[in-house]
Amino acid sequence: MIVLQASGEITRETFWTIGPVGEAAFYYLSAVAILVFLYGVYGRFARYARGTEDWFERFDDLSGRVAAAAKIVGSNEKQFDRDLYGGLMHAFIFWGFLTLLIGTTILAIDMDIWTKALGQGSFFVGDFYLAYSLVMDALGLLFVVGVGMALYRRYAVRNHRLRGKHTGFEDDAFVWTLFLLGVGGYAIEALRILGTEFPRFETVSFVGWFGARALQTAGMSPAAAESLYWWGWWSHALLALAFIAWIPYAKPFHMISSFANVVTRDERAGRRLPGVPADLDHVNAESIDDFSWKELLDQDACTKCGRCSAVCPAKASDRPLDPRDVILDLKRYRMDLDAGETEPMPIIADGGESVIATETMESCMACMACMDACPVEIEHLNSFTRLNRQMTDQGDVRSSMQDVFGNLMQKGNTFGEAPRKRADWADELDFDLADAREGPVEYLWYVGDYPSYDERNKKVARSLATLFERAGVSYGILFDDEKYDGNDIRRVGEEFLYLELAGHHVESFEECDFSRIVCTDPHSYNTMKNEYPEIDFGEFADDPVMPFEYDGHWNEDGSVEVLHWTQVIEQLVRAERFGLDGTELDYTVTYHDPCHLGRYNDEYEAPRELIRATGCELYEMPRNRKDSFCCGGGGGGLWIDFEEDPKPSEERLREALEDTAAGDAVEKFVVACPMCMTMYEDGRKTGDFEDEIEIVDVAELLIEALEAKEVRERSTTAPEGDGVGSTAAD
Ligand code: SF4
Ligand code: SF4
After folding, report:
1. Relative to the CA of 366, which ligand 1 atom is closest?
2. What's the confidence (pLDDT) of residue 544?
3. Longest CA pairwise span in the chain (Å)
4. Is the CB of 323 under 6 A from ligand 1?
5. Predicted pLDDT of residue 545
């Protein structure tokens, strides 16, 4: 029965053929579904409330956070990242689903509040009805297309990302339920239009209209459509209500938890790790009760999309780590424990039964690729740090790592070398380095462990010193007061040693008179820039020195300006302190973004500008900038031997030679990190790339360019007849 109201307004009857008993049953079942939904949502959030307090402030500027999250989620920007198909698919599903949800809510408001409770005339008529029907049909179609794309990717393409240890029935059930809801909605619309004999205005419901015509063509009569409508309507309604009730108990809950996770995200997650609470409670991961509410929310927000797994260099090199599995192993254990379906067990252990194996966590390179790829802002490294701290606390670390800790405790450097030898690398320079402890300097140069003690990286340190010298920069170093910066042992879980090292440096900095800190190593740069200013040394320092009080040198928030050397030298190149004209070198290179400089701290251009300033032709590897692929040295990887296939460094060198547009014409692989230098020099040997490519630091490239410039200048100014070149007068 089509309702063309007495007023001539256009609408449709919502409970057509359902009858008053059916309508009452529907309301009853709806109330049950909503109560089950609310109970489930309450249960989830009540569980988060039982998590420990999170280290970071996550509710400041809540309206700003919600607006930013709405933009991230609404734009689907994270889904589009590196995956156009996935972005379109999710955008169609998201916007289609949201529109259908809003449309259904509007209808409920009209029927139950506006009309029944307030006694007003329905607004679900006339132009509103027509516009409503058109929008619902169009966006509903988008929804069905999106779900169809998901089904195609899942079952036809069989995208490897969508299969894993924790994927299965609920993922299949979720996508099929969405599909049946979308298609079922159109099916009952088509039956209604056919059953009401094609009211002209229903052409706005163009998908339903098309379906009705198709059914008519197939031979269905209006009477048959009317009697089938009842069955179709109830099937659709029961599936929709069951779906609503199911949401908090399975994968569909990500529609709520993911948004909450994006709202409460820490924009500096990973680059600054959680500190240790003053009461020393819940520092590690002795039990699942130690995890913070945000870490529990992270687990529930995971959509199992596998984007983190796909970019993880540890997984790619066959180390026993899949970041998705770690998050979901913790979730499954928590849920099983809460449900009484498992016995308590160690969260992490070396051998024996545990939730996570130590070899899993020691495989992590702390490269942050997983966090960058995650569309719902899961902060893997916060949970991983908790696991690592537990592992370190239990003594479950490799002997090579123990040696590093021992060296640091005894000598303050990872090499176990005498502190007095720390500045020996500078002996070969033909100028003296200033001691930043003895007089004011503009730049306090933190040289770092590898440039101080490792033979290959000492050359880089000398190149950089030469650059500072030639640019006429006021700089000085700490000599034997410099120790290891602590960045990577913190990421391995050695928090207290880290605090000691950081405390030492903060005290040393306070003794000096300088304007900025400049670091050779992106790892030092990261921790000094993002972590030192936030550390609460509390009881762990004899003389707590935080927060910094350092007149004239600290930013308003108490932090000091910390720079990576490429940022300083790039400014000096632009100020023409070196006189480079960009033609000095004439070969082809590629550049590897170090994780701690690029993904961690968003510095992609300074090193590239420096490379271009030399005249070299820079070709990008496919994985560049924030998509860069870790060298394998981060997170303690530098000090641990893994069985890998292939080694990340070898894979990266292969990429440089085979996947850049220049192919094997790439002569040099340029780095801006001492750890990368070490890893790639090793990969060059083990991967048999020695005859094919050379590893150089940006600083060395600049020195080579300066030398080429000097040769050229000498040749153009040499006296006539000296056999070197012609004179300027010529
Ligand atoms: S930080 Fe890097 S190595 Fe560790 S899990 Fe994430 S992607 Fe993998
Ligand atoms: S952690 Fe993030 S990227 Fe990884 S599977 Fe879960 S939602 Fe996807």
Report:
1. 1
2. 40
3. 112
4. yes
5. 40
- Residue 563: its H or E element: strand 562-564
| pLDDT for residue 344 | 95
Using alpha carbons, select from 91, 82, 144, 154 the residue that is nearest to residue 311: 82
Give the single-character DSSP code of 544.
-
What pLDDT shows up at residue 536? Answer: 62
Indicate the Cα dihedral angle 553, 556, 558, 562, nearest 10°: -50
For the chain, list the domains and their CATH numbers.
19-261 (1.20.950), 285-394 (1.10.1060.10), 414-569 (no CATH), 580-717 (no CATH)
**Which tens digits make up the pLDDT trace of 451-509?**
999 999 999 999 999 999 999 999 999 999 999 999 999 999 999 999 999 989 988 98
Output Rg (C-alpha) for the chain, integer angstroms.
32
671 within ligand 1 shell (Cβ under 6 A):
no
Ligand 1 pocket residue status of 596, Cβ below 6 Å: no
Ligand 2 center to residue 261 CA distance, Å?
12
DSSP letters spanning 144-183: HHHHHHHHIIIIII--GGG-STT-SHHHHHHHHHHHHHHH
Ligand 2 binding pocket (C-beta < 6 A) is 302-308, 324, 327, 373-374, 376, 378
The residue whose CB lies within 8 Å of the most ligand 2 atoms, and thus the one to mutate among 261, 328, 374, is: 374
- Tell me, what amino acid is at 608? R
Q: What is the 634 CA–ligand 1 centroid distance (Å)?
A: 10
Residues of the chain below pLDDT 70:
1-9, 278-279, 536-559, 718-730
Predicted local distance difference test score (pLDDT) of residue 720: 54
Q: Pick the residue whose CA is nearest to atom 8 on ligand 2.
A: 305
DSSP assignment of 371-404: HHH-TT---HHHHHHHHHHHHHHHT-S-HHHHHH
Alpha-carbon gap, residue 687 to 361, rounded angstroms: 26
- Ligand closest in space to the Cα of 307: 2
Burial (CB count within 10 angstroms: exposed 0-12, middle 13-18, buried 19+), residue 602: exposed
pLDDT in tens, 300-312: 999 999 999 999 9
What pLDDT is attached to residue 290?
Answer: 95
Category of 726 on φ-ψ map: left (φ > 0), alpha (ψ -120 to 50) or beta: beta
